[in-house]
Design goal:
Elements lengths: L7 E4 L3 H12 L4 E4 L3 H17 L9 E4 L12 E4 L5 H14 L5 E4 L6 H4 L9 E6 L8 E5 L6 H13 L3 E5 L8 H17 L5 H16 L4 H8 L1 H11 L11 H8 L16 H22 L9
Parallel strand pairs: 1-2, 1-4, 2-3, 4-5, 5-6, 7-8
Antiparallel strand pairs: 6-7
Length: 312
């Protein structure tokens, strides 16, 4: 299945929705992007044009059509819908109900929600077998991973159809067969973050040293092998013995770490407020975002031979 064989609609032109549209258009997929806010919609053309130019395919902007409302989309053409509206359950449910009413019965209806199970979003609807979580990671146009999340009502054949389409647009889909909170990748990430913040709370290490330990230690190896494959490299007997020693002392708290809760309570939310665990001036933020994107793009080049091929 090629990217050009399906027409997509992305609902919501915020950061995630715009970057998802970039990914689809870059691969040659005709994409309708719905954004009701006039100011945001006016800014999208420049953002999408510059994004596709940076990705090496500036002419692919013609694959994207912007719309103010759902009713403006030519639904008879659309075969896959990706909802990326604000993370409010009642809003997502209302959008899905409208999508079921407007769209063809064969179209795949998916949500990019990072927190709400697709079984909750689709509750009460009549065609839940074609509804899935489709969770991208920021920045969506650079991070290859996409989670295809199934509910008990989801059709496994449609899940494979969705995964095949994601491969056609150059993504690496993983199927999450149970609709758990956090799905797959965020559960793994939060297990790491629980221990990281617990170590900071306990004064064992600074935020800077925690970050360095991950980036330049075991995290560096993750570019080449995930945690399971890496332990096959190292030897399962070695890992099992270390686990028996380490597991009893790992953090098992059921609420966010003290240092995290205190920063949130005092408005230190990270870049968005000028400070979190680090301090952020406008210049520091611009430099950090440029550094971050540069390294992500370099990582993509390293992994290129292992990513699904996308025709020019």
């Amino acid at each position: 299945m090629g990217a050009r064989e399906k027409t997509a609609a992305v609902i919501g032109g915020g950061v995630m929705g715009a970057d998802i549209a970039l990914s689809l258009a870059w691969a040659g997929c005709p994409t309708h992007l719905v954004e009701p806010d006039a100011d945001r919609r006016a800014s999208l053309e420049g953002y999408l044009r510059s994004g596709l130019a940076e990705m090496g395919r500036p002419l692919r902007y013609r694959m994207i059509r912007l719309h103010q409302a759902l009713v403006a989309v030519p639904w008879a053409e659309v075969e896959i819908v990706i909802e990326a509206v604000p993370e409010k359950l009642e809003v997502k449910r209302a959008v899905f109900a409208e999508l079921e009413r407007l769209g063809g019965r064969a179209a795949l209806l998916t949500s990019n929600s990072s927190s709400f199970p697709i079984s909750d979003i689709s509750a009460g609807l009549s065609s839940r077998e074609r509804m899935f979580g489709l969770h991208f990671f920021m920045p969506a146009h650079l991070v290859p991973l996409v989670e295809v999340v199934c509910s008990p009502a989801s059709d496994p054949a449609r899940a494979e159809e969705l995964a095949a389409f994601m491969r056609a647009v150059g993504k690496v889909p993983v199927k999450v067969r149970r609709d758990l909170p956090g799905f797959l990748a965020n559960r793994l990430q939060h297990a790491l973050m629980r221990e990281a913040f617990a170590l900071i709370d306990a004064g064992v290490a600074s935020p800077e040293d925690v970050d360095a330990a991950v980036r330049f230690g075991f995290g560096f190896r993750f570019l080449a092998a995930g945690p399971v494959l890496q332990k096959d490299h190292a030897g399962l007997d070695v890992h099992c013995a270390a686990a028996a020693t380490i597991y009893p002392s790992l953090a098992a708290n059921t609420e966010p770490a003290r240092g995290l809760r205190e920063r949130v309570a005092t408005g230190r939310l990270g870049m968005k407020t000028g400070g979190g665990f680090y301090e952020w001036t406008p210049a520091a933020m611009a430099a950090e975002r440029a550094r971050y994107d540069l390294l992500l793009r370099a990582g993509l080049k390293v992994l290129q031979s292992e990513l699904p091929p996308v025709p020019d």
